[in-house]
From TrEMBL:
GO terms for cellular component: plasma membrane. The keyword Nucleotide-binding applies. PROSITE patterns: ABC_TM2, ABC_TRANSPORTER_1, ABC_TRANSPORTER_2. This is ABC protein, subfamily ABCH. Residues 551-778 form the ABC transmembrane type-2 domain. The keyword rRNA processing does not apply. Signal peptide: none annotated. One of its GO terms (molecular function) is ATP binding. It comes from Daphnia pulex (Water flea). SMART domains: AAA. Residues 1-24, 320-357 are annotated as: Disordered. Keywords: ATP-binding, Membrane, Nucleotide-binding, Transmembrane, Transmembrane helix.
Length: 782
């Protein structure tokens, strides 16, 4: 099937012509032009950076003909083609395809009536050749039998590698042939091919041109083709010579050569360019056109290989002796003689304002196109299904990356539970006990009965050794110096008569003098450079003294409760008496992990496809932006469900984070926030042209959202004015809702819970609408 050889003599199987609606038949009947362009102008940039690409361009492409569009790189060919297929719009001017404007029901463009091969490869590298063609077959909703027979034909015609080969493993020339096959696959009425023969050997190039000629002659297909090989364009019925955004000439190859008395199209192009206002002595001009003859020189030596199309030029179109294009005996405005084209083009180049002036008709045309910015089409089931299947295939083809993405939220949840919210442990504290007798080796001897001796040693026994590591020092000055050097977190100092003075203080009560009070205290000096550690030490040392006091009172047959402060905290209404900071942060961390993983997954969706040309190719094939977004949301949401399940599994079952409310409600809120993150990622993807810009925008929004949404600290700790800023963030209410479900067990009937759900839905719809609006605006202003 893939062997080199002449193509089949019989025509390929032909499906019914695909149209956008029933009106296409009536709308295009009797229309001679497949494409009609008048006074087209297009610019990019603003101010001093404004660059005019198309300057009052006129163009006619007759039905059932091959139109060769020739011009140097940067002359506006690709921009013109993108406007014809509806991916961009002219600043002013008019374009009709099959009698209707691109995007209208009458034209059926974008859609299956056009086959588009852009300059970029615009192929999915993770797909095999066979899967690539099957994918576009599903997009066009082609019958399975036609898909199979058409693949067989194209594999033979284009000498494609075996169908199981992945596109990314093919050579550049092979990939371009696959791209060409995609454009031909559904046998459209209009073929727009941007340099399809680059990197193709001569025999295969001949086969391709034979097939294009057969399509136009036998099947009435219309072909627009750009090429670097000027002499190759002799196979076209009409040639448009383009320079600096306008056409120098639009004629049949035979007429161009006859009118100018030259033997090659290269010489004709050179002559017309000089006549357009550039002289022989312009070095930039000479350098530009020195690049053209390389392709032409080859065709001078091999032109006998290729059969030349009918010398009469456009089918059904005759030319007067003066070179004027005539159809049905009347002059056609779109085609003029080469001389007339050059003179008008010259004036266009010199006076852009006059040629690109906004007429009433062109303003109405552009306004009509841009009025569709906010119009939405109902998604097609077969296209949506094809896109969803494509996304899943791409996801699972790179299994290593998929596993990394799938397990990343669970890994982050595990790290959070292990590293955040736990009490610090094994904190070194300097102990200076002046009650110890140096002559007895500073041994800490004490009894546990009702004996008033060595209270300092008895107290140290109640300090939690897992939190505090006691480091004995002989002098207070040495301990202070060790704290300054960062060797310990603080100093606990007992005076020389600590036990005796404490007994006297207890006996004297309110009559104890100041000296007794000072000598009976435990002097603690802490390093407060780390608040959390210092608070932990402070709490543990106070708890140790309370336990010590209860132990002494109990040994002396007193009521141990008398040692407690007269403030009692009863069982809490919600939560536990000794809550951990982990439980406070857990709901917010769950939502933050899910939200920003979703942002990361979708932030580069359109960027990658736009840069590779895949987005343009899909939309030209008739795919709607709503369908692309829906497919990505379905794909990512499916992955999100698994990620959320893993996060909850580790949080609740492994690390025992308590959820006192409905688990289903908690999962629902989490999934809503994941969907909200996807929607925000789509907005980022539509706004940014580069991955780095998307990363910067995503990261730039991460920390404000994390700090202001009440994830790390209660919102009551913020200044009042900052709280109002926090309320406008997508996660603030959702975090509070999930925290109320986890900590208080509240259900959806509580406004504190359902308000977070309502806000999440509002953000989802607002972000999706914004992304669609941005896409439409970029289309009509790009």
């Amino acid at each position: 099937m893939n062997g080199v050889g002449a193509p089949k003599t019989s025509a390929p199987p032909s499906p019914p012509i695909h149209r956008s609606g029933a009106d296409n038949e009536a709308g295009s009947a009797g229309i001679a032009e497949a494409i009609f362009v008048r006074n087209a102008c297009k610019s990019y940039g603003v101010g001093k950076r404004r660059s005019t690409v198309l300057r009052g361009l006129d163009m006619n492409v007759k039905k059932g003909t091959i139109y060769g569009l020739l011009g140097a790189s940067g002359c506006g060919k690709t921009t013109l083609l993108s406007c014809i297929v509806g991916r961009r719009s002219f600043d002013s001017g008019e374009v009709l395809v099959f009698g209707g404007e691109p995007g209208s029901v009458e034209s059926g463009i974008p859609g299956p009536r056009v086959g588009y091969m852009p300059q970029e490869l615009a192929l999915y590298g993770e797909f095999t050749i066979k899967e690539t063609l099957q994918y576009f077959g599903r997009i066009y909703n082609l019958p399975a039998t036609f898909v199979k027979s058409q693949m067989e034909f194209l594999f033979n015609l284009l000498d494609l590698p075996p169908g199981h080969r992945y596109v990314k493993t093919l050579s550049g020339g092979q990939q371009r042939r696959v791209s060409f096959a995609v454009a031909l696959f559904h046998e459209p009425e209009l073929l727009i091919l941007d340099e399809p023969t680059v990197g193709v050997d001569p025999l295969l190039r001949q086969s391709i041109w034979n097939h294009l000629v057969r399509l136009s002659t036998d099947h009435g297909r219309t072909v627009i083709i750009t090429t670097h090989y000027i002499e190759e364009a002799r196979q076209a019925h009409t040639i448009g010579l383009m320079r600096s955004g306008h056409l120098l000439a639009e004629e049949s190859p035979h007429n161009l050569l006859s009118l100018h008395g030259l033997s090659t199209l290269e010489d004709v192009f050179l002559k017309l360019c000089m006549k357009d206002g550039v002289g022989h002595d312009n070095p930039a001009y000479v350098q530009t056109f020195n690049n053209i003859p390389f392709g032409a020189q080859y065709w001078k030596n091999t032109k006998s290989i290729l059969p030349v199309a009918d010398e009469d030029g456009i089918v059904g179109l005759t030319f007067s002796p003066s070179g004027d294009s005539m159809h049905g005996g009347s002059s056609t405005n779109g085609s003029s003689s080469s001389t007339a084209s050059c003179s008008s083009s010259s004036s266009n180049a010199g006076d852009t304002s006059s040629s690109c002036g906004s007429t009433a008709a062109s303003s109405r045309a552009v306004g009509k196109r841009r009025s569709g910015t906010f119009k939405l089409a109902i998604p097609s089931w077969h296209r949506s299904a094809a896109l969803i299947r494509k996304n899943f295939m791409q996801t699972f083809r790179n299994i290593g990356m998929f596993l990394f993405i799938f397990l990343l939220p669970a890994a982050q949840a595990i790290l959070f539970c292990l590293a955040i919210g736990r009490d610090p442990s094994f904190l070194k504290m300097a102990i200076v006990n002046d009650e110890l007798d140096p002559s007895q080796g500073r041994i800490c001897n004490y009894t546990t009965d009702c004996s008033y001796s060595m209270f300092s040693c008895r107290y140290l026994r109640f300090i939690d050794n897992t939190t505090i590591v006691q480091v004995p020092f002989k002098s207070l000055s040495d301990a202070i110096d060790a704290t300054k050097r960062g060797e310990v977190w603080g100093v606990v100092h007992f005076g020389q008569n600590f036990t005796d003075e404490l007994v006297v203080r207890q006996a004297d009560g309110n009559h104890a003098d100041n000296e007794t009070i000072l000598a009976s205290r435990i002097a603690i000096t802490l390093d407060w450079s780390n608040q959390q550690i210092s608070l932990t030490l402070q709490r543990r040392l106070i708890e140790a003294f309370e336990d010590f006091s209860k132990d002494v009172l109990s040994a002396c047959s007193y009521e141990p409760a008398a040692a407690s402060i007269p403030v009692t905290f009863l069982d809490p209404i919600y939560g536990e008496k000794k809550p951990s900071f982990t439980e406070f942060m857990a709901p917010g961390i769950i939502l933050t992990i899910v939200y920003f993983i979703a942002v990361a997954l979708t932030a580069a969706v359109f960027i990658n496809e736009r840069k590779s040309g895949l987005l343009d190719r899909s939309i030209v094939a008739g795919v709607q932006m709503t369908e692309i977004m829906l497919a990505h949301l379905v794909n990512q949401f499916t992955v999100l469900i698994g990620q959320t399940a893993l996060v909850f599994l580790f949080m609740l079952l492994v690390f025992n984070i308590a959820c006192h409310g409905s688990l289903a409600l908690a999962v629902f809120i989490t999934l809503l926030q994941g969907l909200c993150g996807m929607s925000y990622g789509l907005v980022v993807s539509t706004l940014c042209d580069e991955e780095t810009s998307a990363i910067h925008l995503s990261l730039g929004s991460f920390y404000p959202n994390l700090l202001l949404s009440g994830v790390l600290w209660p919102m009551e700790g913020m200044p009042v004015y900052l709280r109002y800023v926090s309320y406008f963030l997508p996660q603030t209410y959702a975090v509070e809702s999930l925290r109320n479900v986890f900590g208080r067990g509240w259900g959806i009937e509580r406004p504190e819970v359902y308000f977070g759900i309502v806000i999440s839905f509002s953000w989802i719809f607002a972000l999706l609408a914004l992304s669609l609006i941005v896409v439409r605006i970029r289309k009509y202003t790009g």
